[in-house]
Design brief:
Strand order of the largest sheet: 9-12-13-7-14-15
Shape: elongated
Radius of gyration: 33 Å
Number of strands: 15
Distance between the termini: 61 Å
Largest sheet: 6 strands, mixed
Strand content: 5-15%
Helix content: 55-70%
Bound molecules: adenosine-5'-triphosphate
Oligomer: single chain
Length: 684
């Protein structure tokens, strides 16, 4: 836990994504890990194999330049501790988390403080309205009781006048409060979103399985947090004001009634807390299960075509129904507890209707007080009681609020520790720091040393790569070293599951578990072509320039340049077919897989990187098209690392790294010209 979390985090996060977090890297196919609280995902998800028996690197072997750690298969993290539920109910802990989440906005934004001051002023005025009505109605009922017609009509007129005067106060109180909450939501969501998109948090959190359903936390929990927080704090304030003003009224009518009220409210609060204490944990679980259900539905929509081909709807329906049942089962426990609370709350509420009357009746019958004072004591009693009964009356929503705070704090903390982790992994090289980085690399994570400028070299030194922490850890590659000079083209080959894509993940800094040093061009000079193409939401132009933004790019390529590149990748007819470069479509659904792969190569040519990393990026292309893409890359002089199974790829590379030689071993060879020629002849 960081002492400055999350105040410093929220206050200091600039509203930009980090320069290093280049989206193209993220396009490397990501491992989908199951969130800690989520049920397992459906079978078509690209889930990681966690079974050691399914891996081929479990034995201990010495291979070409490699040796394997004795401790390859580590036990994954244990499930949630049993005392987590207890922690969740710890009110002082929740209040601390609340302060840390809430304060940065009010500290950083002067206008927000003025807004809040306005809402607080209106809160005071609104409490004044309640007190005013209490006195008006007292005289009204006394006039009725004493049959004083003049006073009665006068009080009626006063009442309507007060109604007209007070209504705007009540309406504007709500209006300003809602606006204040909305602005707060916008501020905090922008910050959390910036942090989520920065430093690859969105990838790392998913891969580590540290937090479930981040989408829900950003879109829903933050919204609930801001509106509920404001309501909560203002309710406390109103209660404090009410308590002061109505206590004075009640005390002046009958001090004993005040004492009875205090005893009644205290008993009710204690009983409610005892009966309802499990609600916080259950509400937390409910948020998780609802999000899991929604996620199941989203995946059905996202993978509609694959599921339809598989005729997998029955299986999907079963999985979503299972998630629904998990939500319903938990909710029925919530409802059962609410019922128990209901017995308490209903009795508590209705007893109030006669309790003050029973207490003051003797004084009324003896003529010591008027009927107006009796009705006023009713009003004061119920006001104070509802102030003192915040916990009794709002226990359910308070427990939901507490659960939301817990989830947000957990999320923000995970984002914060991700920033620290990323900073430990990456550094920008300066002269003479290589030895230091290498030393760090042997002891901690794999280190990435980015060389500023336009270098086209790539070095991998003593790289030992493990599957991520949290999974059943396994050594995939041991002690790998190689160097690529500008324009070199390396093909990474080997049987399925031997760690080819994982090596690319390590070079991209996505996988850090292991040791060693990768020295590479800066991240904006590296371009990844992932196995599974990614099309962004937006126009064809936006897709061609991705991850750059055509709206904010200073000198975006003109239409002629875009058309030239589309011509190279054989997609020249696409703009005409789709209605122009600015046509917006769901490109992942509209384009064939081969077209999407060609689009990715078009992006690569437009971005002209120093280093291209291609993970089976041409697997859906014909041999001719593949040759054209690689010839073009060679023409640009770009250094290349490709992963692929196709023999034809040999023709476009000058080195081959074979993985999976005796488990985590490897072998690096030059590809001879006659080998290349042989491949070309065979593929003709
Ligand atoms: N998130 C993860 N956690 C644990 N193990 C993982 C994870 N992702 C992948 N793996 C495992 O790491 C191993 C290497 O995966 P990788 O994707 O690098 O294989 P590959 O050589 O590229 O295979 P293919 O040729 O089939 O694409 C596989 O056994 C895979 O199951």
């Amino acid at each position: 836990m960081h002492s400055h979390f999350p105040v410093a985090f929220l206050a200091s996060v600039p509203f930009t994504t980090t320069s290093r977090a280049s989206f193209q890297r993220v396009c490397v196919s990501r491992p989908a890990r199951r969130p800690r609280f989520s049920p397992p995902r459906t079978s078509y998800a690209p889930t990681a194999s966690l079974s050691p028996s399914s891996q081929n690197g479990a034995s201990h072997t010495e291979t070409s330049g490699s040796h394997v750690d004795d401790n390859q298969n580590r036990v994954p993290e244990p499930p949630e501790e049993p005392d987590v539920e207890k922690k969740r109910r710890d009110v002082s802990r929740l209040l601390k988390l609340f302060g840390r989440l809430a304060m940065p906005y009010w500290k950083s934004d002067k206008k927000a403080r003025w807004d809040l001051a306005g809402v607080i002023a209106l809160t005071f005025l609104q409490s004044g309205v309640s007190v005013g009505f209490s006195f008006i109605s007292k005289d009204f009922w006394t006039a009725l009781n004493t049959k004083n017609a003049d006073l009665f009509y006068h009080q009626s007129a006063v009442f309507f006048f007060a109604l007209v005067a007070f209504t705007p106060i009540v309406v504007y109180y709500q209006y300003f409060r809602d606006n204040c909450a909305l602005r707060w939501r916008e501020w905090i969501t922008e910050r959390v979103l910036a942090q989520y998109c920065a430093d690859r948090s969105f990838y790392n959190l998913e891969a580590d399985g540290k937090v479930d359903n981040p989408d829900q936390r950003i879109a829903q929990d933050l919204n609930a947090f801001t509106s509920e927080s404001l309501a909560f704090v203002l309710t406390l304030l109103v209660s404090a004001i009410d308590l002061a003003s109505f206590s004075a009224i009640l005390f002046s009518i009958y001090p004993a009634l005040f004492a009875i009220l205090l005893g009644y409210a205290t008993t009710g609060t204690v009983l409610t807390a005892v009966v309802g204490k499990r609600l916080v944990g259950l509400n937390y679980q409910q948020l998780v299960r609802e999000a899991d259900l929604r996620y199941g539905l989203i995946r059905l929509r996202e993978n509609a075509e694959s599921i339809a081909f598989f005729k997998g709807e029955a299986r999907e329906e079963a999985e979503i129904t299972r998630r629904l049942k998990a939500a319903v089962t938990n909710m029925s426990e919530v409802i059962r507890l609410r019922r128990q609370l209901g017995f308490l709350q209903t009795g508590y509420k209705y007893a109030v209707q006669v309790l003050p009357a029973i207490c003051v009746a003797p004084r009324y019958f003896s003529g010591a007080i008027e009927l107006g004072s009796v009705t006023q004591s009713f009003g004061a009693f119920s006001h104070i009681l509802s102030d003192l009964s915040l916990v009794v009356n709002r226990f359910d929503s308070l427990s939901q609020f507490g659960a939301g705070i817990d989830r947000l704090a957990e999320f923000v903390q995970a984002l914060e520790s991700n920033v620290d982790e990323e900073n430990r992994t990456f550094n920008t090289a300066t002269v003479g720091d290589k030895a230091k980085t290498l030393e760090e690399g042997t002891s901690k994570n794999i280190q990435i040393r980015e060389i500023p400028g336009r270098t086209r070299e790539l070095s991998v030194e003593e790289l030992t790569l493990m599957t991520p922490v949290g999974s059943v850890e396994r050594e995939l590659i041991t002690n790998l070293s190689f160097h690529l000079s500008a324009g070199d083209r390396l093909l990474v080959a080997g049987p399925s599951g031997t760690g080819k894509s994982s090596l690319l993940r390590a070079i991209a800094g996505l996988w850090k578990n292991g040791s060693g040093l990768v020295t590479c061009p800066s991240s904006d000079a590296i371009f990844f072509v992932p196995q599974k193409p990614y099309c962004t939401l937006g126009s064809l132009r936006a897709n061609l320039l991705y991850p750059r933004d055509p709206d904010t790019e200073e000198n975006p390529p003109d239409d002629a340049a875009l058309m030239r590149v589309l011509d190279i990748v054989d997609l020249h007819e696409l703009p005409a077919r789709m209605g122009g470069l600015d046509t917006v479509a769901d490109w992942s659904d509209t384009l064939s897989l081969g077209e999407q792969q060609r689009l990715q190569f078009a992006r690569l040519f437009l971005s002209q990187p120093s280093l291209a990393i291609i993970d089976e990026g041409s697997s859906a292309l014909g041999i001719d098209a593949e040759k054209r893409m690689y010839d073009m890359i060679r023409g640009l002089g770009v250094t290349v690392v490709s992963v692929g199974h196709r023999p034809s790829l040999l023709a476009y590379h000058d080195k081959i790294l074979r993985l999976g030689k005796s488990n985590s071993g490897w072998e690096l060879e030059d590809i001879k010209q006659e080998q290349r020629d042989r491949v070309i002849v065979q593929t003709l």
